[in-house]
Every structure is written in C-alpha cells, then in structure tokens.
Design goal:
Elements (H helix, E strand, L loop, with lengths): L18 H6 L14 E7 L5 E7 L1 H4 L4 E6 L21 E2 L5 E7 L2 H10 L1 E6 L27 E3 L2 H7 L2 E9 L11 E6 L7 E5 L4 H12 L6 E4 L15 H12 L5 E4 L2 H7 L6 E9 L5 E13 L10 H5 L5 E11 L12 H4 L1 H14 L3 H7 L12 E3 L2 H12 L9 E3 L2 E13 L5 E9 L2 E5 L9 H13 L6 E4 L16 H20 L8 E7 L8 E15 L5 E11 L6 H20 L5 E2 L4 E2 L15 E8 L23 H13 L19
Parallel strand pairs: 1-12, 10-11, 14-15, 16-23, 20-21, 24-27
Antiparallel strand pairs: 1-5, 2-4, 2-6, 3-5, 7-15, 8-13, 9-10, 9-12, 13-14, 17-18, 18-23, 19-20, 19-22, 23-24, 25-26
C-alpha cells in the first residue's frame, strides 16, 4: 500500500498556468519557433497506392527562384537505420501507399516550397493494390501481441456450449469507422543541424514526448543522445497522433542535415495529415453474449478484425476491455489483422478501449431488451468481484456507484418509453459503461532544486493540453509541503530529466510519482530551509508499481437523443457522465479532460468517418470541410461528474488517468438512445441519416 499525500495543493481547481500565454498568442509552437533565416520544406507525396518510382524530374522545381534543394530517394542521405519502414524516408524507389513521402523541396519561403513540390514530376510503375478491409480477408493473421503488450487471444471455458444452452443470447457484428486524430495544431517540426555546435541537432517538434522523440531520431540517424536536443514547450493537441514520431519528423531532420547551419521548418497541411500522421484502424467486432433468466452472463466473446499497414504493424487491442469488464464463466477474445496497402495506423485517444467498448456495450443493450431487464440493472448484475482476466482484486472499482449516481442525476427512472414522441421529434435515452486502465510508464526522473528563493522542478514531460503545466506544480507543492505559488515546473525539453511519453492516461501518474520521490528526498535531505543550488534527482520505475491489484478507472455515460421523425436529423440535448478516477488533482483541468473525451465520443457516434476509397487507396474526405467533428450545436448539455474515490494502491497521489476514459462508452450510449427513440439498431458507426431514415416510423 502506498502512503497518500496529505492534501494541500492537490484538489484545488487552479487556473491553468499556460492559459494566459495561449490566449494571448505568446505560447510558442513548433512551427513558430523563432530562428534566424529559416528555410521551408514541403513534401512530395506518392500519387499511386502501390508501385515503384521509375523516374523523377526535378528540373522545373529547381528552376524556380528561391528553391534551395530538392531531395528524393536518388540523392537523399542514407539513414543509419531503416528497420522501422515508416521512418525510412527517401531511401528507396518502392511505394507502399498513396501519400507516402517520395521527395521534399527546400526553399526560401513556404509558398515557393509548395509551388516547387507541385512541379516535381514522378513517374511510377504502378502495381495492383489491396486497401479494403473485409471480415474474411484472405491475408488475415494473428499478430504476436496487440498494442501495449496484450495477448492476442484469450479463452476460458466453452463459449459455444454456453451459447447453445443459455436462456438468452446475442450474436451480432458491430463496426467502428476509420477516424483521424486531427489536432488543431498540425504536425510540425523546426530542425537545425549544426555540426560545429556542442549539440549538433536541435529539433523543435510538436510531440507528446521529447525523450521518445529524441530516441527515435538518434536510432534513425545513428546519433548519440548527447548530440540531439528536442524541445516542445507547448502542443496544440495530439490525441495520440503525436505520441510517437511519424515520418514527417525524420523528413524534417533529413532536410535540415542537407542545409547545415540553417534551420528548416516543415509543417504538414491538414490534407497531408490524413496520410502521414496516423489514424485509428476501422474494426469489425463479432460479439457473443449468453445469459440466464436473471440476466447474469454465462458467456461473453469478441472476435475482432482490423487493419494495419504492410510496412509497419500496429494491432489495436480492441478486445481488451471485454476480458475484464463483466463477470462470465465462459470467455473468449481474438484479434486478426489484415496487412493492406494503406498508411500506418497508430494511437488514437483510448486505443483499444474506445472501439472495444462499442460492440460490447451495444450488445448488452440488445441483451437487456431481449430479457426485459433495465440496462443499468443488467450491468450491475454482472459486476465481478475480482478482475475476470487475472483474478486479482481491484485496487478500487466503483462502476456500480457510477451507474447509480449517473442514473439519479440523469433522471433515468423517469425516462420516456420507447418511441416516445415530442412533436416532430422521437426521444430516447441510452446508457453505457466506461473503463480505462490505470497505468504508469516504466520509468521517469525528476529534479528538484532551490533557486532564487523558489523550488524548481525539472522533468522532460509534455503538456499536450491536459494540464501538466498546472497539476505537476500542485503535486510538487504537496510533496514539499509548501504553497503551490512557491513551485516552478519546467517541462518539454530533453535537457531536463528523462520522462515518459504523454500517453495511455499515464502522464500525471508517472511524472507525478517521480516528482513526489524527488521532492520527498529533497525535503528529507535539506529540511525546510534549503540553500541556493540545493538539488535532488529522484526516479520512479516499474519495480515500485503495485502488481497485486487490477487498477482501472470506471464510469457511466447517459445520453438523451432526439431524432426528427421526418428528416432523421439527430440532436443530443444531454450527455452526462459520472466517473470514478481516483483522487482528482485539479477539478478544473479534470472536468475539461472528461468533457473533451465525451465530446470526442459523441463525434465518433454522429460524425467522424474517414471515408475510404479503395479504388485509389486514400481517404476521400481528407480535410475539415468534409471530415466532420462535433461542434457546440451537436450537444446541448454535457456534464462530467466524479465520485470521491480513495485508492491507495495506484500511486502516491492516489490518482488515476482521466484523459481517455471520457471517450470510452460514449458512442454506445448514443446508439442505445437512438434505438430507444426509433426502434432502429445502428451497429455500424457513425449514425448517419441513411442508417435511420428508412426505418423511421
């Protein structure tokens, strides 16, 4: 059991420390890095989905005034490592997907660079491509493991036998769409290669982890860690897409090394991000549920089919939440992946849990309808005493409390009957559970120093908008037992101690644990009257993590949907969530994160769909004019609440990650509400007009 910190700064709804700089426009993002006399880079992208480059004509581009260089596979630097094929930019004539990087133009202005890139003529020997995911794709295979090291398949008992003898069963197939992260700030990098400098390569990158970014660059270019500095004080959103560097980072560094001593800026356009910055794979989920007369599950199974790129495997752990969410003696989860001629999929807010909570939570609603049991009650009846996957006791699990408080707040007991009509609108309500694992990354370090009368904490963390600039000083202040205004935190630079990536809702847990260790050591060594320059560096690693309990955050989401009886137009007047996520470090930033996740879940339910054209192998709606996301008009009243949850096992703060749990379950709650309103069961996201119009009463 970990001793919890005595509350002082933790729990205060402090205003974001970075807020004023962002509102005033003084926060510096990667593309805005103030460097002297920068050059600008613009990529050249493949226009075939598969093939080989047979010729490149750069003469027209090079003839333009202001063009400094044109790099292709014919003249680009040979990289030290091409093991990661996504990073092997301009290394061969092979084309693995439409939009792949096949060149880059360097010029005096961004406008000239773009014009010149359009003037590069690339000729291809085009080959037949395969870019369409199907449930019976002939090349489906079982990966060695799925994302985050989860087992590919799991099984316990006999699902088929339980399905054959159960009182009630559900056997349905659900699907989630391909979606793209689309942060407001596009992926951007400013890079400077100066061989004569103490640190030859400086990279100002929009990233969720400066140290992982540096490690990848060092590997690809054969550089030592002390030869590279990565800087990222601010990130304009990432949602996972900036959790790992993509090919554009390597292209920017490659370009900078071609112009020694001169900084190079490369910012992807919105359209380019649909090819180069990752996305969430579409999933096809075959669900099986079996229950007795009381609604207790006798079997639960999910068989998932998804896609990856031929050049780099990414297997979404979509089946993971089915393994631990509800009690059932017979269980099965499988993952099968189709390698296609498509861009590389990657992390997207709550990878695995987000798509993986759609099929199960809609299937439970279908089961509740078949049994005539309230869907909230059905979930409560299947509450497991211990983690069904591992048999470990829960560090804390308050899903039932979330369901009950959410139902009370939402007015669930008085919800309208199925097909209720209010004028021209059909009204329905739906519920779904939420879950996300509580994680801490393998290791992080933090330094605490007394400097000019203040406590300074340095850690190479990244604030991608989640509030690290604000909550880390609160954690440090508690551990030091000083007012939070006496603490300054410095982040976003590899000059600071090593920090893990901001991903998996693990940032605050990991960095906060390292800061706590360092701060307590500092206070123990120097007392309450430190001298100028007194310093301690503390570390936290996986060895100190509690391994005896299953640690998760839980939640319940309730949605009210109105569907126009004539047009099929959808409105969501209310979306309410109640969560149990340990100790809340800062209520202001926490509510922002939870509402942000819920809003993205609503977007997943109603709008987001990267429409794939398999004929040419690309997303057809690759801009924000046609790739629709949720806006204020799509939801009237969105609320996030939480329970006061004491969990002494997760870390010294007693906190759980909150960045991702808000998105899990939301889409299922909306779909379940649509069914109650209209009688139409949508099993393929998103819920568009064509899926409801034909079935309206």
């Amino acid at each position: 059991m970990t001793e919890l910190l005595d509350p002082r700064a933790i729990g205060q709804a402090l205003v974001r420390r970075d807020g004023e700089a962002k509102v005033r426009g003084t926060a510096t993002y990667a593309a805005e890095t103030p460097v002297a006399h920068p050059a600008y880079a613009h990529p050249v992208q493949a226009t075939v989905a598969r093939g080989r480059i047979t010729a490149v004509d750069t003469s027209a581009a090079e003839a333009l005034d202001g063009v400094l260089a044109v790099l292709t596979h014919e003249n680009a630097e040979r990289l030290a490592s091409t093991e990661d094929r996504e990073y092997a930019v301009l290394q061969s004539a092979e084309v693995a997907f439409r939009g792949q990087l096949v060149g880059v133009v360097l010029a005096e202005t961004s406008e000239v660079a773009r014009q010149a890139a359009d003037a590069v003529v690339v000729t291809y020997a085009e080959q037949e491509h395969d870019s369409e995911l199907t449930v019976d794709h002939p090349d489906l295979y079982a990966p060695e493991q799925v994302n985050a090291g989860h087992e590919t398949d799991t099984a316990e008992g006999d699902v088929a036998a339980a399905m054959a003898t159960a009182h009630a069963t559900v056997e349905r197939t659900y699907s989630t769409a391909m979606v793209h992260n689309n942060p407001l700030e596009p992926h951007a990098t400013t890079a400077l290669w100066d061989p004569a400098a103490d640190v030859p390569l400086t990279v100002w990158d929009s990233t969720q982890g400066v140290h992982p970014d540096r490690a990848a660059v060092c590997e690809v270019f054969g550089l030592e860690q002390d030869q590279v500095r990565v800087v990222c004080p601010y990130v304009g959103g990432g949602f996972g897409s900036k959790g790992t560097p993509h090919a554009n980072v390597m292209l920017a560094v490659l370009a900078a090394r071609a112009l020694p001593g001169r900084p190079v800026k490369l910012a992807l356009t919105r359209q380019q991000m649909f090819f180069l910055a990752g996305y969430r794979t579409p999933t096809i989920q075959r669900m099986q549920l079996a229950a007795d007369r009381t609604g207790r599950l006798q079997a639960i199974a999910i068989d998932v089919v998804e896609q990856t790129s031929r050049i780099k495997e990414f297997a979404e752990q979509t089946g993971a939440p089915t393994r631990m969410m509800y009690a059932a003696p017979n269980r099965r989860t499988t993952h099968r992946v189709a390698p296609l001629d498509v861009p590389v999929p990657s992390w997207f807010r709550a990878p695995g849990e987000c798509p993986g909570m759609f099929g199960p939570e809609v299937a439970l609603d279908e089961l509740a309808e078949e049994l005539g049991i309230d869907p909230v009650e059905l979930r409560i009846r299947n509450e497991p005493d211990v983690d069904p996957e591992t048999g470990k006791p829960w560090s804390s699990r308050n899903l039932v409390a979330c369901l009950r408080e959410g139902a009370q707040r939402f007015g669930w007991a008085d919800r309208p009957p199925p097909g209720h009509r209010d004028g021209d609108w059909l009204v329905g309500t739906g519920v779904a559970s939420s879950v996300y694992p509580t994680m801490r990354q393998a290791t992080s370090d933090a330094a605490v120093r007394f400097e000019q009368g203040r406590y300074v904490v340095e850690i190479g963390a990244a604030d991608l908008g989640t509030g690290a600039w604000t909550v880390l000083p609160q954690i440090a202040a508690d551990a030091l037992d000083v007012p939070v205004d006496d603490v300054e935190v410095r982040i976003g630079d590899t000059r600071y101690p090593v920090a893990s990536v901001a991903g998996g809702s693990s940032g605050t847990n990991t960095w906060g644990s390292a800061i706590t260790v360092a701060a307590r050591e500092f206070r123990g060594k120097f007392g309450r009257s430190p001298a100028e320059g007194d310093e301690v560096t503390g570390s936290v690693d996986q060895a100190t993590k509690d391994e005896d309990h299953a640690a998760y955050a839980f939640g319940a989401q309730f949605a009210e949907v109105r569907v126009h009886a004539d047009t099929g137009e959808l409105r969501v007047p209310r979306l309410h969530g109640v969560f149990a996520a340990g100790r809340i470090v800062n209520p202001r930033t926490a509510r922002s994160q939870l509402i942000g996740g819920m809003t993205m879940g609503l977007s997943m339910a109603l709008h987001e769909n990267s429409v794939w054209d398999p004929r040419i192998g690309q997303v057809a709606n690759h801009d924000l004019a046609e790739y629709h996301v949720t806006v204020n008009a799509d939801v009237g009243d969105v609320q996030a609440h939480w329970l006061d949850e004491h969990d002494p096992f997760v870390n010294a703060m007693g906190s759980k990650g909150i960045g991702e749990i808000g998105i899990t379950g939301t889409a299922a709650a909306v779909v379940n509400a649509v069914h109650r309103a209209t009688g139409i069961r949508v099993r393929d996201l998103p819920v568009t007009l064509d899926k409801v119009l034909a079935g309206l009463p």
